[in-house]
Amino acid sequence: MVATITLASLTRTQSLHTSPSSEVYAAGMKSALPAETPGELNNLVDTSVVVKRTKITCSADIARFERERDLLERCAHPRIATLLGIISSAPTYALVMPHYARGALFGILHASGEVLTAQAKAIVLSDVSEAVCHLHSIGVLHRDIKTDNILVQADGRAVLTDLNASELESNITSDIVVQARPTGGFFKQFVVGTLPYMAPELLRSVRGAAYTRACDVYSFAIVMNEACAREPIRIRRACYLVVT
């Protein structure tokens, strides 16, 4: 069972990302931890961690937090972001993970000014491929593979993160079916993922399609193209018209 961390054990240092559903920030583990802190976490004293706090507005948000926690435990692997512990004391529900120093691959490619060598790109992409293969081998679909969800360690190795949209294959039982061109609201409610990385079959206006392993593979191919070309993926007008 994953360790429980008290909010008092952390000192917030930097805001990293905010979305409608969560807030991500860097924090330091205090040098004087409460007596109830699990022993293995003492190794993190005076180190930086990342806290992903779920914004709670209803019971469904707590269920979403618990679901991602359970998936991170189930999917534990060297190429999947490590769950160090959780904060689970109302009103704060959060996942605590390592602070991967170089940040997301998207930022490295498009905002850092850093130019990755072909070898460095190959290492990152190989690591992501290993992560996806692991997820599929245990019956889990990631459903939101993109460069923002790939974190790079100081040594250049990569991990796949953010299982918020992930799902067990066994829980996906039928296609999404609509009788007319779907609206933006339909996609927000029924289709997960990030539009530029989504497989075309998920955008079809009438038939729809259940999410499959092939959809993850398509998203990974888009990531490979983005990494090699160093060009952000842009939504083509034709795709935009399908979903509006």
Describe this structure in words.
GO terms for molecular function: ATP binding; protein serine/threonine kinase activity. This protein has 244 residues and is α+β, with helices and mostly antiparallel strands. It folds into 2 domains: 3-98, Phosphorylase Kinase, domain 1 (2-Layer Sandwich); 103-229, Transferase(Phosphotransferase), domain 1, CATH 1.10.510.10. It has 6 helices and 9 strands, in the order βββαββααββββααα. It has a 5-stranded antiparallel sheet. A hairpin with a 5-residue loop joins strand 7 (150-152) and strand 8. Helix 3 runs antiparallel to helix 5 (213-229). It is globular, with a radius of gyration of 19 Å. Residues 236-244 have low confidence and may be disordered.
Average pLDDT score: 83
CATH topology of the largest domain: Transferase(Phosphotransferase), domain 1
Tell me which oligomeric state these chains represent. single chain
Roughly how many Å is the radius of gyration? 19 Å
Number of strands: 9
Instruction: Give the strand line-up of the largest sheet.
Output: 1-2-3-5-4
Instruction: Give the CATH class of the largest domain.
Output: Mainly Alpha
Strand portion, in percent? 15-25%
Number of domains: 2
**CATH homologous superfamily placement of the largest domain:** Transferase(Phosphotransferase) domain 1
Name the CATH architecture of the largest domain: Orthogonal Bundle
Main sheet characteristics: 5 strands, antiparallel
Helix content: 25-40%
Structural class: alpha+beta
Question: What is the overall silhouette?
Answer: globular
Poorly predicted ranges: 236-244
